[in-house]
Amino acid sequence: MSAERFEKKKTIELRKKHIGPSCKIFFSHDPIKIVRAKGQYMYDEKGQRYLDCINNVAHVGHCHPDVVKAGAEQMEKLNTNSRFLHDNLVLYAQRLQATLPDKLSVCYFVNSGSEANDLALRLAWQYTGHKDIITLDNAYHGHVSSLIDISPYKFHQLTDVEKNPSVHVALSPDVYRGKYRVDHPDPATAYADEVKDMIHKVQKKGGKIAAFIAESLQSCGGQVIPPVGCYQQIAEHVRKAGGVFIADEVQVGFGRVGTHFWGFQLQGEDFVPDIVTMGKPIGNGHPMSCVVTTKEVAEAFMQTGMEYFNTFGGNPVSCAIGLAVLDVIVKEDLQGNALRVGRYLTDLLQKQKDKHPLVGDIRGCGLFVGVELVKDRLKLTPATAEAQEVIYKLKQQHILLSADGPHRNVLKFKPPMCFTTEDADLAVGHIDNILTELEEALGLTLHNTVNVENESSKRKLPTDENGHQYHSGLVHNKGSSQGTKRLKTQC
Q1: Kind plus residue range of the DSSP H or E element containing 450
Q2: What is the pLDDT, as a whole number, of residue 1?
Q3: Helices marked H in 166-229 — which ranges?
Q4: Closest Cα to residue 139, out of 211, 46, 31, 78?
Q5: Is the per-residue pLDDT at 471 higher than 60?
């Protein structure tokens, strides 16, 4: 059967008719129809190849033959739920635990990152007997009801009356545009102290902290890299209050950061969360996820007397695929590749910052890199419309990239882990050309002061690549350069 059953126009018509209108697609005014993929490339119905710079789900590469083979072979033999004994489940749990600190030894297999984070909250509530949750501003942890409550990225538009009173939002540890920046003598402690103060305020009102939850590196929040030691100190404050620390690795786990297998390890070798959640890359596109915790937390969860049952979590096919993903990461040294190519990519992008006034900040670890575009390097005025124009022009050059962050002005690199230096050259070369054209149209240089409002407002870009609506809101750009001081990181 052909990979394309309908013409593109018909596919769009059927999607509009049968798929919920809130389910957005990339490039809504001219979407791409993808019919096959391999490695770091995706192909449309006409055979046009696109370089995929955004797909952190196809972790070891789209349709990796080893992963496909493992799933197909196991599916031919058996697929059933985890209430039957099966070696794949325990083998995978053993292999997965070997990548983690010894303390994190008990696994719960589920089917999505959202399901994993929802279960993590249940574990925390039961273990602590407390209810209040601290989350970070701009965080995203999933789409089920309990997670919308702790995802400011989603609920920011709600009124205080509509928000869950047991959820408390701490500052995002963003050293570029946050409250405590790169020039602060100790931003890690400053952000941790904000959480400490929040805990005291909650306690004064009679609340009790069950958990602090954070993405090890914030993705939807704009590729934010927390300062080293920040989470260690936060964990100390939270545990003193009787709570636990939940590390959300759904976006950044499995070697993506290069120097380490898990993003939380960037905070220090001695930092161990109480609960770790994972998803997306774990199954290379197969619906699979996991929660890993300590024996103490797991035993407390069992004491509820309520059996935990998940029909498909940890089924033989999922675990076979998970094992194959771990094998490929090792066999092809994809963690090492993330480190080498990630550093090469970051170096290329740093050169763009030296050249282009629209580039405000380059930050990242391994193959998790953000490029923040601004119209003023002192005021940090977000270049939202310009970021969207970069995305659309890259699409015309058959390169897929996305933008995110609270202002939708951060270009996000999180490609399959087989991404190469040649791919980095291609993508950054086109970004260089696009930024040059944009800055020439705006009359913008590194050393001048211009009013870009009139020129930018002429550029009609009604939606971003995810279908979000924007207003131009452009302001004066002084083109001044922020200092190049960088915090110590393990990236």
Answers
A1: strand 450-451
A2: 42
A3: 187-204
A4: 211
A5: no
Q: What span, in angstroms and rounded, lies between the C-alpha atoms of 486 and 488? A: 7
pLDDT of residue 460: 44
Q: 393-447, pLDDT tens digit by residue? A: 999 999 999 999 999 999 999 999 999 999 999 999 999 999 999 999 988 887 6
The total of other beta-carbon atoms located within 10 Å of residue 33's CB is 16
Q: Which residues lie below 8 Å from residue 246, measured CB to CB, with a gap of 6+? A: 117, 120, 121, 124, 211, 212, 213, 214, 273, 274, 275, 276, 277
Q: Which element (helix H / strand E) includes 34?
A: strand 34-38
Is residue 22 very low, low, confident or very high in pLDDT (cuts 50, 70, 90)? confident
- Centre a 10 Å sphere on the Cβ of residue 345 and count the other Cβ atoms it contains: 26
3-state secondary structure of 133: strand
Q: What is the DSSP string of 74-131?
A: HHHH----TTS--HHHHHHHHHHHTTS-TT--EEEEESSHHHHHHHHHHHHHHHH---
Q: In whole angstroms, how far apart are CA 407 and each of 295, 469, 489?
A: 41, 12, 25
Tell me what pLDDT residue 482 has: 43
